[in-house]
Amino acid sequence: MRIIIEKDYESLSKKASLLVASQILLKPDSVLGLATGSTPLGMYKNLIEMYKRNEVDFSKVTTFNLDEYYGLSPDHPQSYNSYMKNNFFDHINIPPFKCHLPKGNAKNVVTECYTYEDKISKCGGIDFQVLGIGENGHIGFNEPDDSLNVLTNLVDLRSQTIEANSRFFESSCQVPKQAISIGIATIMKAKKILLLASGENKAEAIAQMTSGHVTTKVPASLLQTHQDLILLVDEQAGKLL
Ligand code: GLP
């Protein structure tokens, strides 16, 4: 694992966008795994600016998002599909058919999970996976538990996660209680992983995921066994390292 500590959120976002752009420069048809939440917003903003300056071309890129709330239709304002369109896809030259998210309102969720996983493997797997981390150490929506899902699955969200994500909704009772999330193996099979964390509230999770021990109680700790992981944090998230 390579650990990079940046001074603040701005420099972390800048470095993250440069790492993604370098990946696309080296492999224009890269398959990117993408994350939502507050953390990657600065990275997306910088990538849009780089695209406007003709410094990066997304026309051959394919993307797969980590997760989607179960029960929300793709056009729901709080869906991750809407988040990705508003914050990234609608501002770059990526063909919409190359942007994939699980369908939160799928009639048959088992089929949806299987189909999503199948699409990822038919594209050859993820070349470059961007991850955030939950305060409880979750990655995607793989929550701390006695065991973790290997492949894409319907998952129950922990109350801590519902509470943390309620800032995007009018109240915590509007936050869906379940989500479709890619599994741990799907993430671990990515050729490169970039995990971003900013702010003091992530310091404990970052310390736990780098402790030298692997436990399903801190899903991100499994990343310690990945062969090409960059942990990019700001000083506050890295303060216990
Ligand atoms: C959600 C997402 C995760 C993300 C996490 C952290 O739970 N499913 O993929 O990493 O939030 O979000 P934030 O960056 O807003 O702290």
SSE map:
Blueprint: E1 2-6, H1 9-26, E2 31-34, H2 41-52, E3 62-65, E4 67-69, H3 80-87, E5 99-100, H4 109-122, E6 128-131, E7 153-156, H5 159-165, E8 178-181, H6 184-188, E9 192-197, H7 203-209, E10 229-234
Parallel strand pairs: 1-10, 2-3, 2-6, 3-5, 6-9, 9-10
Antiparallel strand pairs: 4-8, 7-8
Helix pairs in contact: 1-2
2-amino-2-deoxy-6-O-phosphono-alpha-D-glucopyranose (GLP) is lined by residues 35-39, 66-67, 132-134, 140-141, 161, 165.
What would your notes on this structure say?
The chain is an alpha/beta fold and 241 residues long. It has a single domain (2-234), classed as Rossmann fold (3-Layer(aba) Sandwich), CATH 3.40.50. Helix content is 29%, strand content 17%. It has helices at 9-26, 41-52, 80-87, 109-122, 159-165, 184-188, 203-209; strands at 2-6, 31-34, 62-65, 67-69, 99-100, 128-131, 153-156, 178-181, 192-197, 229-234. The strands form 2 sheets. Strands 1-10-9-6-2-3-5 form a 7-stranded parallel β-sheet, with helices on one face. Strand 2 (31-34), helix 2 (41-52) and strand 3 (62-65) form a beta-alpha-beta unit. Helix 1 packs across helix 2 (41-52). The radius of gyration is 17 Å and the shape is globular. The relative contact order is 0.19. The model has no long low-confidence stretch (mean pLDDT 97). The structure holds 2-amino-2-deoxy-6-O-phosphono-alpha-D-glucopyranose (GLP). The site of 2-amino-2-deoxy-6-O-phosphono-alpha-D-glucopyranose has 14 residues, from helix 5. Keywords: Carbohydrate metabolism, Hydrolase. InterPro entries: Glc/Gal-6P_isomerase, Glucosamine6P_isomerase, Glucosamine6P_isomerase_CS, NagB/RpiA_transferase-like. Pathway: Amino-sugar metabolism; N-acetylneuraminate degradation; D-fructose 6-phosphate from N-acetylneuraminate: step 5/5. It catalyses: alpha-D-glucosamine 6-phosphate + H2O = beta-D-fructose 6-phosphate + NH4(+). Its EC number is 3.5.99.6.
